[in-house]
């Protein structure tokens, strides 16, 4: 192996770890934005139709759980890449 190949392999490991860290951060930011939009839309809907509050709250919780699940999956995947 030449010195150039060794240096290029070292750089790709660093870039992979940097990409994993950035990916975990983006997943967390995306989840925060998604849950914020769900909450804001639900509150707006409850203000327009107060009689639908129970159904809206249940749907909001399910949607927020789905967003959090996807975010946790992405963060765990990025952290696995980061520490492997």
Describe this protein's structure.
The protein has 84 residues and is mainly alpha-helical. It has a single domain, classed as Up-down Bundle (F1FO ATP Synthase). It is 92% helix and 0% strand. Helix 1 (3-48) runs antiparallel to helix 2 (53-83). It starts with a helix and ends with a helix.
Compressed to H and E, one letter per element, the order equals: HH
Low-pLDDT windows of residues = none
The proportion of residues forming helix, as a percent range, comes to over 70%
Supply the helix-strand structural class: mainly alpha
Largest sheet: none
Provide the β-strand percentage band: under 5%
How much is the radius of gyration in Å? 20 Å
Q: How many angstroms separate the termini?
A: 24 Å
CATH architecture: Up-down Bundle
Task: State the fourth-level CATH superfamily.
Answer: F1F0 ATP synthase subunit C
CATH topology: F1FO ATP Synthase
* Tally of contiguous helical segments: 2
Averaged pLDDT:
86
Would you state the CATH class? Mainly Alpha
Overall number of domains: 1
**Mass-distribution shape:** rod-shaped
Write down how many β-strands occur, each being a DSSP E stretch of 2 or more residues: 0
